[in-house]
Amino acid sequence: MNTLTPSQYLPETPPGRHFRAEKFDVGSFFFSGLTGLATLFILAILGVILTNIVLNGWSALSWHFVSTIPKKDFFDAATTGVLPMIVGTTIRVFVMTIFVIPIGVITAIYLTEYAPNTSIITRVIRAAVNNLAGVPSIVFGLFGLGFFIHFIGKNLDTLLHHPSAVWGQPALIWAALTLAIMTLPVVIVATEESLKAIPPGLREASLALGATKLETILRIVLPQALPGILTGGILAVSRAAGEVAPILFTGVAYYMASLPSRLSDQFMDLGYHVFVLSTQSPNIDQTRPLLYATVLVLLILTLALNIVAILIRARVRKKLRSLG
Amino acid sequence: MGIHRGHRARPLEWLAERFIFLVSLSTILMVFLIFLFVAREALPIFFGGANTAPLQTVLSPEAMDQLSPAQLQAYLELTPQQFATLDRESIQALLLVKQEAQDEIPAHVRSDPDARVNTVEWKYLLGPHQWSGYDKPEYIWQPVGQIQKYNIIPLLVGTLKITLIGLLFAVPLAVGAAIYVSQLARPRVREIVKPVIELLSGIPSVVVGFFALIILASVLQKIFGYPIRLNAFVAGCALGFAVIPVIFSIAEDALSSVPQAYTQAALALGASRWQTAWQIVLPAGLPGVFAAAVLGFGRAIGETMIVLMVCSASVMSWNIFDSARSITTTIAAEMAEAVTGGPHYRILFMLGALLFAGTFISNLIGGVVIQRFKLKLEGKR
């Protein structure tokens, strides 16, 4: 039996006319262009912000700047530095990950591996995760103040018989815990995504070989999901590093002469420092280079993490798509 | 043996499962705790337990025996537990201190008709009042001085003003870009543009606020020529930057999830790419786009640092070129100077509870709309 090739059964294209469904249409051209322009405009905004900050910040950035603990007057460009802010931001974010990653990963495991999809409790947990993602950051700050400091901290002080407030005041640990609650949905969503990307066949094979469900999750599923968990962690860190509102009342200090050494210490913070420099400077023209350099450090910290997370996530999604 | 290796056979396995379940409940607990503890600090406002009037009716220490303990406790502004620990002498001493404090109030405050007004009653929180020195009833937020004015209407107006400007700026741009990226762009362009726009959400809001304060405010003033450099318009535009990635990624996701068959059918019938996008894909994906705008609204209303850096004074005005102060900004700027447990502190927590309720509702609406939309596309409804 002969099979026809397309060139045999398709009518020949008339000479001189290219086969094209669309006529030129002014409306289409105009509106497509408009959406394209909207896209370009957004990209341009991003470009302008980044180039402006990089160009202005680069010249003021030096090793001295990132490795110096400033004196009381940190508006003075010659002697100032941002070491305590970098350290403060790093520590608070690090302490946060200790809390947020285990809780987030376990919740995601429950939601993908154990939860019956239709039960009310699963839907309530999902609704809670969505809701937590939408709570304004300043409300997290209020919560940290009302719950961690005034409730837990004060009661801890009475319990331990501290004569003066040790835990019942703004502290590193309270800021970190507040941020942990705020970034919980980020970790849950990213972990869930990567757990779903693992082929069910792997789980079935493991169960068929006699492993229990827990063994399957610990030995087969989790190692596979590691990139996704990593993405979630990085995104959470990058989000938390740039947030200022939740730590305003829970731990940040305007100025500290030394680096924080205990969990009950207050700390200085990069984002908050940007806020202070740009709104409370006595002479904005003099502080401007300083300000740009500080913003650049903050941006490098958050954006670099973000880019890494986006790259890992793109790989996870590609894997997911190849399965679906 | 093999038969009993199901996960119910081992106590340790069972325990681990319970543990995983309990940990996952913590998210529900968190949402509950947030609402509980923010609302708890604001409770006295709701139940009228706070009094801000500087001038109060003095109860003399000599007349102490004629009063009930409940009256004394309310007068001294103590909690029942605190009141129970005090003996007769210390209560008398407190009465004396209070009397002396009242005696020290300067004459000009004493003669002010507003000195007996409890400004945290709902009437004064929401309605206009003709304060002494003003020639007509006005809405005023002014939490300093002898007579503290806590009318929250200017803050609500400021928040709405800034948020709406932000959305008017962000929604057309973000939805336009979502249409372009999901429907019109070539796959290679799409793969680059999408993560780059999402990168915008990785820029901390202090940085956006800083950019708006240093660059954008001056540029916009040069273009529009308004007198006040830092105003609601600048704050709204900056807020728009921050909301664009949120709206974009949800809208783009919604438009991409419209089945390919729709697009292919339209194209096969001879529609152009744009006609397909505008008349087929957008109507099909409209619930998702709507949800994106609602969730963007929730994000915009809760944004703090951008507005805090660009806008400051609370002015009761609908003019977008006037200064404005949003709810979030008020909380962030004034919490440090509010006395813990005082009326100002309580009002700020009440604003926080209000904000939480507002975003809770907008997230709920957005979430439900998206879920229904997805179910509909999957043909399950």
Describe the structure.
The complex is a heterodimer of chains A (324) and B (381). Chain A has eleven helices and no strands. With 324 residues, chain A is mainly alpha-helical. Chain A has one domain: MetI-like (MetI-like fold). The mean pLDDT of chain A is 86. Chain B has two domains: 45 residues; 225 residues, MetI-like (MetI-like fold). In chain B, helix 7 runs parallel beside helix 10, helix 10 packs across helix 12 and helix 11 runs antiparallel to helix 12. The radius of gyration of chain B is 28 Å and the shape is globular. The chains are: A mainly alpha (324), B mainly alpha (381). At the A-B interface, helix 2, helix 4, helix 5, helix 6 and helix 7 of A face helix 1, helix 7, helix 8, helix 9 and helix 10 of B.
Keywords for this structure?
heterodimer, A: 324 residues, mainly alpha, MetI-like fold, globular, B: 381 residues, 2 domains, two-stranded antiparallel ribbon
Largest sheet of chain B: 2 strands, antiparallel
Largest interface: A-B, 91 and 93 residues
Number of domains of chain B: 2
Taking pLDDT < 50 over at least 5 consecutive residues as the criterion, the unreliable ranges of chain A are: none
* Annotated CATH homologous superfamily of chain A: MetI-like
> Can you give the helix content of chain A as a percent range?
over 70%
Average pLDDT, all residues of chain A: 86
CATH topology of the largest domain in chain B: MetI-like fold
Strand content of chain A: under 5%
| Number of alpha- plus pi-helical segments of chain B | 15
Estimated helix fraction of chain B: 55-70%
Counting DSSP E segments of at least 2 residues, the number of strands of chain A comes to 0
Q: Mind telling me which CATH architecture of the largest domain in chain B this is?
A: Orthogonal Bundle
Give the CATH H-level superfamily of the largest domain in chain B. MetI-like
Mind summarizing the main beta sheet of chain A? Answer: none
The CATH class name of chain A reads Mainly Alpha
Provide the number of structural domains of chain A: 1
Q: Which fold does the CATH topology of chain A refer to? A: MetI-like fold
Q: What gap, in angstroms, lies between the N and C termini of chain A?
A: 36 Å
- The oligomeric status of these chains comes to heterodimer
